[in-house]
Write a structure and sequence with these properties.
The complex is a heterodimer. By secondary structure, chain A is mainly alpha-helical. Chain A contains twelve helices and no strands. Chain A has two domains: 51 residues, no CATH class; 148 residues, no CATH class. In chain A, helix 1 packs parallel to helix 3, helix 7 packs across helix 9 and helix 7 packs antiparallel against helix 12. Chain A is elongated and about 75 Å long. About 8% of the residues of chain A have low confidence. Chain B is mainly alpha-helical. The relative contact order of chain B is 0.10. Classes of the chains: A mainly alpha, B mainly alpha. Chains A and B meet through helix 1, helix 3, helix 4, helix 10 and helix 11 of A and helix 1, helix 2, helix 3, helix 4 and helix 5 of B.
Chain lengths: 236, 184
Amino acid sequence: MKCSKARELTVLYLYNDLTEAERASLEEHVGACPDCGREMAESRRIFTLMRAAGRATVPQVSWEKNWATIDARLDRKERRPFGFFPSRGWAIAAASLLIVFVIGIGIGRLLFFPSGRETLSQVGAAPGSLQASLRDHLEALKPVVVEYSNYNIDRNGGGRFEIDRDLIRALIVQNQLLKQIIAEHDPTAVPLLEDLDLVLKEIAVQKSSGQHDPATVKEIIDGRDVVLKMELFKKI
Amino acid sequence: MAQAGDREAFHRLFEAHREKIFGLAFNYLKNAEDAEDVLQETFVRAYHHLDRFNLDESASLSGWLSRIGINCCMDSFRKNRMKTQRVDDIEIMERTANPDRNNDPERSRELQEVREKLAAIVDGFPPRQRMAFVLRHHQDLNVREIAANLGCSQGTVKKMLFRSFETIKKHMRKFLGEKSYEML
């Protein structure tokens, strides 16, 4: 057994979560390797300390009160309670972007379809233009999502992703706005936009906190089949 | 019966699993109020998706509820992180949570410091890694069970637990080195 493998197995050894063969192999290696022997002793010391420190006691809560809240919510079909827009500033930014977004759609339509088949007043809410906006939005998101989806921890070794923080913020707001607008016309697109919301927020949090963890973003993307859903919607 | 929409049967389901789901949420979020939100959200989602639970495949209802609870925990954690830097109430919670077990005030204080330090380290983990650690350390699930609950491979779980313990070791070495007392 290599030292690196022994280090990997140490935590599972301490939790007694190894097979007999793995346990025997690890003990044999640790017995023969002074470095791994010292590392195991140190690990065991810290692990014992973690166990001795114990766990936080779960506080008492009123089950009746919780059931009453659940019971009241069971009859109504509702949106998820964990909302976004953490501050008034975000709401103002979102409203501003909504205006820019709608005007942008209108100008774009006038420039690229000058024949007058659609008037400006028709463009903002027409289902056809919303589908086009959704496709454009998915196209803009594609490079970000695909880059994270293709991340391989063993190959990339935690390499950095050069994605602009402001771009992510703008995409979050655009995603939120599109979700609100499109919900009235095409509710089938909402789950995909909610998944994208989660992906973008995770990236934004990592950018803000400096905790680079593309594997977590990849897990969200893969776990919710985001890439596949995006491809399906682009074909509609 | 709960699957057929029987509210009384669903209430019995709630009674049977509420402590497990709340315990998981509290250990993950370290906040009773957020844990109550997750508890409620878990059972509301479960009720609306009971038809998706397949009784014929001898699936575990407890495991299915746990998976919903895990997703609710991680959703809550991610979205709360976006709102603001959380007020760290772990210290207050833990201070009242573990009574002095061996009547040695000095020892008790030392262990209290370790608990607080450990909670602060785990607070910095990414959501899924944090969940893997909580399921292993607090809920006593083995690697196979954690992988089933998180919907990933056992290899991924092993990597997350390895990374967690390496981070804890790094911080605890520094922490213990700064202390004048010998913990063990």
